């Protein structure tokens, strides 16, 4: 019984160490950039987020897109500068009839995102 308790405790410790290692934020590649973008216009209720996520799958970028309560859509994207530019150009081109205003701001890349996702 004591051996079983010891093994059980060891498994708990190993799981905690593994989880702590996974939670550690990875440093982004040195040539990474990040952009936080707000889109205004007819950008909610039209499939904007799903389409943006699909566009992201065609580009080597990570981040997320979400609706805001004020009717805008917010997007955070990270990747190499050229890839981020091409991705944002593709979003702009696809939604040019719906976007009335686009505000982009440079951010420090975190490297914490592994994919591009829709946030709710």
Description of the molecule:
This protein is α+β, with helices and mostly antiparallel strands. It has 3 helices and 5 strands; from the N terminus they run αβαββαββ. The protein has a 5-stranded mixed beta sheet. A hairpin with a 5-residue loop joins strand 2 and strand 3 (73-80). The model is unreliable at 18-24 (pLDDT under 50).
Task: Give the tags.
five-stranded mixed beta sheet, alpha+beta, 3 helices, 120 residues
Low-confidence stretches: 18-24
- Strand element count: 5
Helix content: 25-40%
Individual helix count:
3
Structural class: alpha+beta
Span from first to last CA? 47 Å
In this structure, how is the largest beta sheet organized?
5 strands, mixed
Summarize the structure.
The protein is α+β, with helices and mostly antiparallel strands and 120 residues long.
How would you summarize the topology of this molecule?
Blueprint: H1 2-23, E1 32-41, H2 48-57, E2 62-67, E3 73-80, H3 81-94, E4 99-107, E5 116-118
Parallel strand pairs: 2-5
Antiparallel strand pairs: 1-3, 1-4, 2-3
């Amino acid at each position: 019984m004591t051996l079983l308790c010891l093994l059980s405790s060891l498994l708990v410790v190993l799981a905690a160490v593994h989880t702590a290692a996974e939670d550690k934020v990875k440093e982004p590649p040195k040539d990474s950039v990040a952009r936080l973008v707000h889109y205004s216009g007819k950008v909610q209720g039209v499939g904007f987020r799903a389409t943006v996520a699909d566009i992201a799958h065609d580009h080597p970028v990570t981040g997320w897109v979400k609706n805001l309560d004020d009717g805008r859509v917010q997007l955070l994207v990270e990747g190499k500068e050229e890839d981020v530019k091409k991705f944002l150009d593709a979003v702009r081109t696809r939604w040019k009839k719906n976007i009335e205003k686009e505000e982009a701001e440079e951010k420090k890349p975190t490297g914490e995102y592994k994919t591009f996702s829709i946030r709710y």
